[in-house]
Amino acid sequence: MSGIAGILNLKHEPIPDLKHRLGAMGKLLKHRGETELWVHPSNYVGFTGLGKNAIGSEGDRRIVYDGEIYNSSEIKKGSDADAVLQAYQAWGKDCLNHFRGMFAFAVWNDQNHVLFCVRDRFGIKPLYYTIVDNVFYFASEAKALLPFLDSIDTDIDGFRDYITFQYYLDGKTLFKGIKELLPAHAMQVKDGRVDIWRYWEVYFNLDFDHTPQYFEKELRRLIEESVQLHLRGDTPLGAYVSGGLDSSVVASVAGQNYGGELVGFHGKFDYGPEYDESHYARALAQKCGFSVEEIPISAQDFIDNIRKVIYHLDYPTMGPGSFPQFMVAKHASKQRKILLGGQGGDEIFGGYVRYIIAYFEQCIKAAINGTMHSGNFIVTYESIIPNLVSLKQYKPLLKQFWQEGLFEDMDRRYFRLINRANLLNKEIRWEYLKDYSPFEKFRSIFHTDNVQKESYFDLMTHFDFKAGLPPMLQVEDRVSSAHGVEVRLPYLDHPLVEFAATIPSDVKFKDGTLKNVLKQAMKDSLPHEILNRKDKMGFPTPIVEWAKKEAKQFVHDVFSNQKALQRDLVDNRVVLEGLDQEEKYSRKIWGLLCLELWQQEFHDKQHEYKKLVIGHK
């Protein structure tokens, strides 16, 4: 676990208080590791490194580095930072094609006065940047950039993305003036100019020449290879064990390679069987021969920690699973500093129930039109029916989905499935929002040249891979770094991802079975309870129940303080009126609560960020 930050005057003019500014960034990132500074003799560029060996040098090049290069030993002996510099010197920008791992780094080349910044292919490691008064700032977390902004303001387009998706598209954040370098992108800052480009893409060039058995065998080989890579090192490892397929596969393979020293960690709620999946975690641990720690999470934990979660996230994103993840990481950090996780499995192999909903509608449409058996459908209504039991807990979503737009174009239908703004009305002051259209930005990602247009399944999973996975990785990075934990994600290994993109949809999603190819490939390693379950819902969290009972006063107080009632974009009086009307599993309360807590933690405290550098400009 580590972090990075840096400052460059675009005119190469000295910054008198450069060391102080770098130190202020280090203070805001101190949870990521011990701070080390490097300042150029000319005082116009410098780095802040957090963690062991975060800053390195070779010749006229200096690097600040965060991450893990799992094949670094094949490049050069020494630290990962040394390996990256060696690769950069040997191959230039093409060095990125040689790395397997998670990384964000910046290299200053003193010979040609170029700053080269990079983020890994999937966005596991974060990188944010801003430009203020001809000074370029970058950091692992957006909060480290806040002291340099003239004021902390909400990005209106980012806000529109958030209320639509509960995440952000195209590098936007919720902070006006702060951008995120997208996954698989690199940035060059030279002569006052910032150039950004994509250096890697996944192509869905489908392989129709091989059998399902071939794909299953090769997939298993690649998963085992990736897990072994992610086990490298001499630090004891643990694993998140949610009870779902993805984390179970990773933990089972790790257990086979790591033996009984592996420790699993599982969070649960004492709030009924729908919020307690611990029996699945125990079944896996028993089959694979490792121990599992069960972490009970209460409403009081929520009250005591949710502000900390929002602070570490920088800005709200994704669903309520970030809170229990925070609590599990906190507990796990007492025993393990490196954990394995299963992020990426849903997007790579197709694990979201909404894919069944989308295809079910298309099956109905095709049956009516008499085109079901024309060869364009990977499932039929006859074959998908046995898998509709997975929709049991999604009746409210089905009701909302079919209220309007039935049988419209596929892009509009999928947008409706993921559009959370449909649940909002008078809570939002819509008149303050600009003409920006989240749907048009969605379409530009949904319809892309690297996916064949006729594959609805691939279009959906690709969108979630590009737009929905990075914010989940933001959550993963922040809640783990808050407790000094590094999380490694074996599914996000580019040879595995590139291979999975060649698997035809009718193998991945056979008969409407979510993650069919992954289940078939790993069936010998998993308990039948996990292999055959159809009720997995991510990390179900009783937020709505708490907001109506144990945490009701806390939630009411958040929305009813004087500043909360004066927000520009949200009418919290309307929010208060609707608190008791939310349905189980609704993310409306969660989304609005996180938004208000974010305002309180950052907007209302902006003077605390400014005073970190005040008097040193």
Q: Which fold name is given in CATH as the topology of the largest domain?
A: Rossmann fold
Rg over C-alpha atoms, rounded to the nearest angstrom: 24 Å
The helix tally amounts to 24
CATH class division of the largest domain: Alpha Beta
The main sheet comes to: 6 strands, antiparallel
Look at the structure and name the CATH superfamily of the largest domain.
HUPs
The count of β-strands is 17
Low-confidence stretches: none
Strand order of the largest sheet: 2-3-1-9-8-10
Structural class: alpha+beta
Distance between the termini: 31 Å
**What's the number of domains?**
4
Shape estimate: globular
CATH-level-2 architecture of the largest domain: 3-Layer(aba) Sandwich
Helix content percent band: 25-40%
Average of the residue pLDDT scores: 94
How would you characterize this protein structure?
With 617 residues, the protein is of the alpha+beta class. The protein has 4 domains: 3-127 and 181-200, Aminohydrolase, N-terminal nucleophile (Ntn) domain (Glutamine Phosphoribosylpyrophosphate, subunit 1, domain 1, 4-Layer Sandwich), CATH 3.60.20; 212-349 and 465-531, 3-Layer(aba) Sandwich (Rossmann fold); 353-457, no CATH class; 543-604, no CATH class. It is built from 24 helices and 17 strands. The strands form 3 sheets. It has a 6-stranded antiparallel sheet, covered by helices on one side. The longest helix has 26 residues, at 456-481.
